[in-house]
Protein backbone atom coordinates (compact mmCIF):
# COMPACT_ATOMS: atom_id res chain seq x y z
CA UNK A 1 0.00 0.00 0.00
CA UNK A 2 1.38 3.44 -0.91
CA UNK A 3 0.99 6.19 1.65
CA UNK A 4 1.37 9.93 1.17
CA UNK A 5 3.87 12.10 2.98
CA UNK A 6 0.96 13.60 4.86
CA UNK A 7 0.04 10.19 6.21
CA UNK A 8 3.57 9.62 7.45
CA UNK A 9 3.67 13.15 8.92
CA UNK A 10 0.60 12.29 10.95
CA UNK A 11 1.86 8.86 12.03
CA UNK A 12 3.32 8.92 15.49
CA UNK A 13 6.50 7.14 16.42
CA UNK A 14 6.58 3.76 18.06
CA UNK A 15 8.27 5.44 21.00
CA UNK A 16 5.17 7.58 21.50
CA UNK A 17 3.02 4.43 21.54
CA UNK A 18 5.15 3.04 24.34
CA UNK A 19 4.88 6.33 26.21
CA UNK A 20 1.08 6.23 25.93
CA UNK A 21 1.01 2.67 27.17
CA UNK A 22 3.29 3.49 30.08
CA UNK A 23 1.08 6.37 31.12
CA UNK A 24 -1.75 3.97 31.81
CA UNK A 25 0.35 1.97 34.25
CA UNK A 26 1.42 4.78 36.55
CA UNK A 27 -1.52 4.46 38.92
CA UNK A 28 -1.38 0.67 38.87
CA UNK A 29 2.27 0.54 39.94
CA UNK A 30 1.55 1.11 43.61
CA UNK A 31 -1.33 1.24 46.07
CA UNK A 32 -3.75 4.13 46.18
CA UNK A 33 -2.72 7.01 48.39
CA UNK A 34 -5.29 7.99 51.01
CA UNK A 35 -5.94 11.34 49.39
CA UNK A 36 -5.87 10.14 45.78
CA UNK A 37 -7.99 12.19 43.42
CA UNK A 38 -10.91 10.77 41.48
CA UNK A 39 -8.84 10.93 38.31
CA UNK A 40 -6.14 8.78 39.92
CA UNK A 41 -8.74 6.27 41.08
CA UNK A 42 -10.17 6.00 37.57
CA UNK A 43 -6.69 5.55 36.09
CA UNK A 44 -5.86 2.78 38.54
CA UNK A 45 -8.99 0.85 37.61
CA UNK A 46 -8.70 1.44 33.86
CA UNK A 47 -8.41 -1.50 31.49
CA UNK A 48 -4.94 -0.43 30.34
CA UNK A 49 -3.67 -0.16 33.89
CA UNK A 50 -5.13 -3.55 34.80
CA UNK A 51 -3.55 -5.19 31.75
CA UNK A 52 -0.13 -3.88 32.66
CA UNK A 53 -0.53 -4.76 36.33
CA UNK A 54 -1.63 -8.32 35.49
CA UNK A 55 1.04 -8.62 32.75
CA UNK A 56 -1.62 -10.20 30.56
CA UNK A 57 -3.74 -9.13 27.57
CA UNK A 58 -6.92 -11.19 27.23
CA UNK A 59 -8.10 -11.39 23.62
CA UNK A 60 -11.48 -12.63 22.36
CA UNK A 61 -10.38 -15.07 19.65
CA UNK A 62 -12.84 -16.13 16.95
CA UNK A 63 -12.37 -19.84 16.31
CA UNK A 64 -12.13 -20.66 12.60
CA UNK A 65 -12.38 -17.11 11.26
CA UNK A 66 -9.60 -16.59 8.71
CA UNK A 67 -8.02 -14.20 7.89
CA UNK A 68 -8.45 -12.92 11.46
CA UNK A 69 -8.04 -16.04 13.60
CA UNK A 70 -7.01 -19.63 12.86
CA UNK A 71 -6.42 -22.18 15.63
CA UNK A 72 -4.40 -25.28 14.89
CA UNK A 73 -6.31 -28.45 15.80
CA UNK A 74 -2.96 -30.19 16.33
CA UNK A 75 -0.94 -27.69 18.37
CA UNK A 76 -3.61 -25.30 19.63
CA UNK A 77 -1.51 -22.42 18.33
CA UNK A 78 -3.23 -19.32 17.00
CA UNK A 79 -2.39 -17.51 13.76
CA UNK A 80 -3.99 -14.86 11.56
CA UNK A 81 -4.12 -11.12 11.02
CA UNK A 82 -5.70 -10.29 14.37
CA UNK A 83 -3.32 -12.64 16.16
CA UNK A 84 -0.40 -10.64 14.75
CA UNK A 85 -2.13 -7.41 15.79
CA UNK A 86 -2.57 -8.72 19.33
CA UNK A 87 1.07 -9.82 19.48
CA UNK A 88 2.21 -6.35 18.46
CA UNK A 89 0.05 -4.67 21.10
CA UNK A 90 1.24 -7.11 23.77
CA UNK A 91 4.87 -6.50 22.80
CA UNK A 92 4.44 -2.75 23.23
CA UNK A 93 2.79 -3.24 26.61
CA UNK A 94 5.37 -5.89 27.62
CA UNK A 95 2.67 -8.38 28.59
CA UNK A 96 1.66 -11.93 27.66
CA UNK A 97 -1.41 -12.85 25.60
CA UNK A 98 -4.28 -15.08 26.63
CA UNK A 99 -6.57 -16.05 23.76
CA UNK A 100 -10.13 -16.72 24.94
CA UNK A 101 -12.35 -18.74 22.59
CA UNK A 102 -15.18 -16.54 21.37
CA UNK A 103 -17.66 -15.64 18.64
CA UNK A 104 -18.73 -12.27 17.23
CA UNK A 105 -21.78 -12.21 19.52
CA UNK A 106 -20.07 -13.61 22.61
CA UNK A 107 -17.17 -11.18 22.40
CA UNK A 108 -19.43 -8.26 23.32
CA UNK A 109 -20.71 -10.12 26.38
CA UNK A 110 -17.16 -11.11 27.32
CA UNK A 111 -16.10 -7.46 27.21
CA UNK A 112 -19.05 -6.44 29.38
CA UNK A 113 -18.36 -9.14 31.99
CA UNK A 114 -14.59 -8.57 32.21
CA UNK A 115 -13.70 -11.89 30.58
CA UNK A 116 -11.56 -10.22 27.90
CA UNK A 117 -9.82 -6.87 27.43
CA UNK A 118 -10.24 -6.55 23.67
CA UNK A 119 -12.13 -7.98 20.69
CA UNK A 120 -10.13 -7.60 17.52
CA UNK A 121 -12.60 -7.57 14.64
CA UNK A 122 -16.03 -6.04 15.19
CA UNK A 123 -18.11 -3.66 13.13
CA UNK A 124 -19.37 -0.78 15.26
CA UNK A 125 -23.15 -0.42 15.19
CA UNK A 126 -25.34 1.97 17.17
CA UNK A 127 -26.66 -0.93 19.28
CA UNK A 128 -23.21 -2.33 20.00
CA UNK A 129 -21.95 1.14 20.95
CA UNK A 130 -24.38 1.15 23.87
CA UNK A 131 -22.49 -1.81 25.34
CA UNK A 132 -18.84 -1.41 24.31
CA UNK A 133 -16.46 1.18 22.91
CA UNK A 134 -14.59 1.04 19.61
CA UNK A 135 -11.21 2.16 18.33
CA UNK A 136 -10.69 3.93 15.06
CA UNK A 137 -11.21 1.73 12.01
CA UNK A 138 -8.25 -0.34 10.84
CA UNK A 139 -10.00 -1.60 7.70
CA UNK A 140 -13.06 -0.61 5.64
CA UNK A 141 -14.81 -3.88 4.82
CA UNK A 142 -16.65 -3.93 1.49
CA UNK A 143 -19.49 -6.29 0.55
CA UNK A 144 -19.98 -8.59 -2.38
CA UNK A 145 -21.69 -11.67 -3.71
CA UNK A 146 -20.83 -15.37 -3.76
CA UNK A 147 -22.64 -16.96 -6.69
CA UNK A 148 -22.21 -19.55 -9.45
CA UNK A 149 -20.32 -18.51 -12.57
CA UNK A 150 -23.56 -18.13 -14.55
CA UNK A 151 -24.94 -15.50 -12.16
CA UNK A 152 -23.80 -12.10 -13.39
CA UNK A 153 -25.00 -9.65 -10.77
CA UNK A 154 -22.62 -6.80 -10.00
CA UNK A 155 -24.85 -4.11 -8.47
CA UNK A 156 -27.25 -3.90 -5.55
CA UNK A 157 -29.98 -2.85 -8.00
CA UNK A 158 -29.41 -6.08 -9.92
CA UNK A 159 -29.75 -8.05 -6.69
CA UNK A 160 -32.90 -6.19 -5.68
CA UNK A 161 -35.24 -8.64 -7.40
CA UNK A 162 -37.91 -10.86 -5.76
CA UNK A 163 -37.03 -13.68 -8.15
CA UNK A 164 -33.49 -13.92 -6.74
CA UNK A 165 -33.00 -16.11 -3.66
CA UNK A 166 -30.32 -14.60 -1.43
CA UNK A 167 -28.70 -16.19 1.63
CA UNK A 168 -27.21 -14.30 4.58
CA UNK A 169 -26.13 -15.33 8.06
CA UNK A 170 -28.59 -14.22 10.72
CA UNK A 171 -27.80 -11.01 12.61
CA UNK A 172 -24.67 -10.26 10.58
CA UNK A 173 -23.68 -7.06 8.85
CA UNK A 174 -24.17 -9.03 5.60
CA UNK A 175 -27.84 -9.37 6.47
CA UNK A 176 -28.04 -5.69 7.37
CA UNK A 177 -26.51 -4.66 4.04
CA UNK A 178 -28.69 -7.02 1.99
CA UNK A 179 -31.94 -5.88 3.61
CA UNK A 180 -30.93 -2.24 3.32
CA UNK A 181 -29.83 -2.22 -0.33
CA UNK A 182 -31.77 -5.14 -1.82
CA UNK A 183 -35.05 -5.15 0.16
CA UNK A 184 -37.06 -6.69 -2.68
CA UNK A 185 -34.81 -9.74 -2.98
CA UNK A 186 -36.00 -13.08 -1.60
CA UNK A 187 -33.68 -13.08 1.44
CA UNK A 188 -33.26 -16.04 3.78
CA UNK A 189 -31.25 -15.64 6.98
CA UNK A 190 -29.51 -18.83 8.14
CA UNK A 191 -28.30 -19.39 11.68
CA UNK A 192 -24.65 -19.91 10.71
CA UNK A 193 -22.32 -19.16 7.83
CA UNK A 194 -21.82 -22.90 7.28
CA UNK A 195 -25.55 -23.18 6.64
CA UNK A 196 -25.28 -20.36 4.11
CA UNK A 197 -22.53 -22.25 2.30
CA UNK A 198 -24.57 -25.48 2.36
CA UNK A 199 -27.56 -23.64 0.88
CA UNK A 200 -25.32 -22.38 -1.93
CA UNK A 201 -23.85 -25.82 -2.56
CA UNK A 202 -27.26 -27.51 -2.69
CA UNK A 203 -28.69 -24.79 -4.95
CA UNK A 204 -31.40 -23.81 -2.48
CA UNK A 205 -30.40 -20.19 -3.04
CA UNK A 206 -29.03 -18.35 -6.04
CA UNK A 207 -26.34 -16.40 -4.21
CA UNK A 208 -25.18 -15.11 -0.85
CA UNK A 209 -24.05 -11.70 0.38
CA UNK A 210 -20.66 -11.79 2.11
CA UNK A 211 -18.24 -9.26 3.52
CA UNK A 212 -15.29 -9.27 1.11
CA UNK A 213 -12.67 -11.12 3.15
CA UNK A 214 -15.19 -13.69 4.37
CA UNK A 215 -16.52 -14.22 0.86
CA UNK A 216 -13.10 -14.84 -0.62
CA UNK A 217 -12.16 -17.30 2.12
CA UNK A 218 -15.52 -19.10 1.77
CA UNK A 219 -14.92 -19.66 -1.94
CA UNK A 220 -11.40 -20.94 -1.32
CA UNK A 221 -12.72 -23.30 1.35
CA UNK A 222 -15.39 -24.68 -0.98
CA UNK A 223 -14.97 -23.72 -4.67
CA UNK A 224 -18.23 -25.56 -5.52
CA UNK A 225 -20.27 -22.69 -4.11
CA UNK A 226 -19.15 -20.33 -6.88
CA UNK A 227 -17.10 -17.17 -7.24
CA UNK A 228 -16.82 -13.96 -5.23
CA UNK A 229 -17.31 -10.50 -6.74
CA UNK A 230 -17.86 -7.06 -5.26
CA UNK A 231 -21.26 -5.39 -5.35
CA UNK A 232 -21.30 -1.78 -6.53
CA UNK A 233 -23.64 1.16 -7.04
CA UNK A 234 -23.19 1.89 -4.26
CA UNK A 235 -19.92 0.47 -2.98
CA UNK A 236 -20.62 -0.25 0.69
CA UNK A 237 -17.92 -0.32 3.31
CA UNK A 238 -18.34 -0.84 7.04
CA UNK A 239 -15.40 -0.33 9.40
CA UNK A 240 -13.60 -3.12 11.20
CA UNK A 241 -12.52 -1.91 14.64
CA UNK A 242 -11.09 -3.04 17.94
CA UNK A 243 -13.80 -3.30 20.60
CA UNK A 244 -13.05 -2.58 24.26
CA UNK A 245 -14.96 -2.24 27.55
CA UNK A 246 -16.87 0.96 28.23
CA UNK A 247 -15.17 3.06 30.91
CA UNK A 248 -14.68 6.70 31.87
CA UNK A 249 -10.90 6.49 31.66
CA UNK A 250 -9.83 6.88 28.00
CA UNK A 251 -6.24 5.59 28.28
CA UNK A 252 -6.93 2.21 26.63
CA UNK A 253 -8.95 3.72 23.77
CA UNK A 254 -6.44 6.54 23.22
CA UNK A 255 -3.56 4.08 23.00
CA UNK A 256 -5.41 1.83 20.54
CA UNK A 257 -6.51 4.77 18.36
CA UNK A 258 -2.89 5.88 18.02
CA UNK A 259 -1.78 2.28 17.44
CA UNK A 260 -4.32 1.88 14.60
CA UNK A 261 -3.35 5.18 12.94
CA UNK A 262 0.33 4.33 13.15
CA UNK A 263 0.01 0.85 11.64
CA UNK A 264 -2.34 2.02 8.90
CA UNK A 265 0.06 4.83 8.06
CA UNK A 266 3.05 2.55 7.55
CA UNK A 267 1.08 -0.11 5.64
CA UNK A 268 1.41 -2.72 8.39
CA UNK A 269 -2.35 -3.38 8.53
CA UNK A 270 -2.38 -4.26 4.84
CA UNK A 271 0.50 -6.67 5.34
CA UNK A 272 -1.18 -8.39 8.30
CA UNK A 273 -4.47 -8.78 6.40
CA UNK A 274 -2.78 -10.00 3.21
CA UNK A 275 -0.78 -12.60 5.13
CA UNK A 276 -3.93 -13.64 6.99
CA UNK A 277 -5.70 -14.28 3.69
CA UNK A 278 -2.93 -16.72 2.75
CA UNK A 279 -3.98 -18.92 5.68
CA UNK A 280 -7.22 -19.54 3.78
CA UNK A 281 -5.36 -20.16 0.53
CA UNK A 282 -6.15 -16.70 -0.87
CA UNK A 283 -2.99 -15.37 -2.50
CA UNK A 284 -2.52 -11.66 -3.32
CA UNK A 285 -3.25 -12.35 -6.99
CA UNK A 286 -6.61 -13.91 -6.00
CA UNK A 287 -7.83 -10.66 -4.42
CA UNK A 288 -10.00 -8.62 -6.82
CA UNK A 289 -8.59 -5.23 -7.74
CA UNK A 290 -11.60 -3.48 -6.22
CA UNK A 291 -10.97 -5.04 -2.78
CA UNK A 292 -8.72 -2.67 -0.85
CA UNK A 293 -6.98 -4.09 2.22
Characterization of this structure:
- The chain is of the alpha/beta class.
- α9 (173-181) links the parallel β8 (165-169) and β9 (186-190).
- The protein is built from 13 helices and twelve strands.
- The protein has two domains: 5-139 and 240-286, Periplasmic binding protein-like II (D-Maltodextrin-Binding Protein, domain 2, 3-Layer(aba) Sandwich), CATH 3.40.190.10; 140-230, Periplasmic binding protein-like II (D-Maltodextrin-Binding Protein, domain 2, 3-Layer(aba) Sandwich), CATH 3.40.190.
- The strands form two sheets. Strands 1, 4, 5, 6, 7, 8, 9, 10, 11 and 12 form a ten-stranded mixed beta sheet that branches. A two-stranded antiparallel sheet has the order 2-3.
